[in-house]
């Protein structure tokens, strides 16, 4: 695979940064509840931009990196939809006013993106030096796939992580919001508003999700640039999905099954790659196992599209059948 030209990477980062600046400081400065039309328009825009970026990547670098990007983006986008369940719980737990939720998501997702970028850099450095880490990544994804299929990762109650609990102990935080302000004054005393906690909660909770998604994408590509851009394009449309699908998330009953198939497939793929490049002395005498086949990138993309698309379609069909049955009983 040819290396991605530095100029192309710089232009990509500048354009993506511009998207976030406009979202935060132009569109985000008008707190409101997005309409269905607005959400659909922006989701279509970001999906189109991802497709265009993949096409440009294909033209500049080649077909393999482009297919890797599409595979990583679809995987991350699908996992992000599942993560919206927790975001809904967080918003309810902190009683975030509906008209401020879009702004909160914008800031929280930006924090998450920065933390994910650091995570990706660390992950890339580890993979480059210790290829056996694929055994750990693969096993982790397979276990996660089993838990997802069995419903073991579902949690209807939000629990604060250690960072948030520690912060509450060292700073003064009021229970009342003051618009978008992080700081407010009560009786002459300065307090942080709950907005600070919500920002950090969204961002750090998303990083916890990254322990599933980042290893999964590294199973599809070893290029940190593609891993990072896959994450960016998935996160760009996340807040619109939050408002558009918020009332329908519990209707996507087969989505966990589709995600389990994707995670399980990538987990097996990672272990196969680890075996083909093995250096552990207690496996095959420390030599690579050449008989292990290399799964083509297009197969990964096909599995992801079939699993996610199939689970979404099955969920919609079931939802419509239940609606039809309810209408029949109501007559």
Calculate the terminal CA-CA distance, rounded to whole Å. 62 Å
Order of helices and strands: HHHHHHEEHHHHH
Structural class: mainly alpha
How is the biggest beta sheet arranged? 2 strands, antiparallel
Radius of gyration: 21 Å
Shape: globular
Instruction: List segments where confidence is low: pLDDT < 50 over at least 5 consecutive residues.
Output: none
Distinct helical segment count = 11
Into which percent range does the helicity of residues fall? over 70%
What is the number of E strands? Answer: 2
| Strand residues, percent | under 5%
The order of strands across the largest sheet is 1-2
* pLDDT averaged over residues: 80
3D architecture notes:
The chain has 331 residues and is an all-alpha fold. It has eleven helices and two strands; from the N terminus they run H-H-H-H-H-H-E-E-H-H-H-H-H. The protein has a two-stranded antiparallel ribbon with strand order 1-2. The chain is globular.
Short description:
By secondary structure, the chain is mostly helical. It has 11 helices and 2 strands.
List the helices and strands and how they pair.
Blueprint: H1 6-27, H2 36-60, H3 63-93, H4 101-129, H5 133-150, H6 162-170, E1 183-186, E2 189-192, H7 194-218, H8 224-236, H9 238-245, H10 255-276, H11 297-330
Helix pairs in contact: 2-3, 2-9, 3-7, 3-8, 3-10, 3-11, 4-7, 4-8, 4-9, 5-10, 10-11
């Amino acid at each position: 695979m040819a290396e991605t030209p530095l100029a192309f990477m710089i232009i990509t980062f500048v354009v993506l940064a511009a998207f976030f600046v406009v979202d935060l400081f132009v569109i985000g400065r008008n707190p409101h509840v997005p309409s269905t039309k607005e959400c659909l328009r922006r989701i279509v825009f970001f999906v189109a931009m991802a497709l265009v970026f993949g096409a440009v990547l294909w033209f500049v670098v080649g077909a393999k990196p482009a297919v890797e990007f599409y595979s990583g983006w679809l995987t991350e986008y699908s996992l992000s939809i599942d993560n919206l369940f927790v975001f809904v719980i967080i918003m309810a737990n902190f009683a975030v006013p509906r008209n401020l939720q879009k702004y909160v998501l914008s800031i929280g997702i930006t924090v998450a993106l920065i933390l994910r970028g650091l995570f990706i850099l660390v992950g890339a450095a580890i993979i480059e030096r210790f290829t056996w880490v694929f055994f750990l990544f693969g096993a982790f994804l397979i276990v996660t796939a089993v838990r997802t299929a069995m419903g073991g990762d579902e949690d209807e109650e939000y629990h604060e992580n250690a960072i948030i609990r520690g912060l509450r102990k060292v700073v003064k935080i009021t229970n009342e919001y003051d618009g978008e302000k992080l700081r407010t004054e009560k009786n002459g005393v300065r307090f942080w508003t709950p907005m600070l906690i919500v920002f950090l909660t969204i961002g750090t909770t998303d990083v916890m999700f990254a322990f599933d998604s980042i290893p999964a994408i590294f199973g599809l590509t070893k290029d940190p640039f593609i891993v990072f851009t896959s994450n960016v394009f998935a996160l760009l449309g996340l807040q619109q999905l939050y408002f558009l699908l918020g009332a329908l998330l519990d209707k996507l009953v087969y989505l966990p099954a589709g995600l389990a198939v994707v995670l399980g497939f990538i987990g097996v793929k990672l272990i196969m790659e680890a075996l083909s490049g093995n250096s552990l002395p207690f496996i095959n005498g420390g030599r690579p196992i050449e008989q292990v086949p290399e799964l083509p990138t297009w197969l990964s993309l096909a599995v992801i599209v079939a699993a996610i698309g199939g689970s979404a379609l099955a969920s919609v069909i079931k939802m419509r059948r239940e609606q039809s049955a309810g209408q029949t009983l109501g007559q």
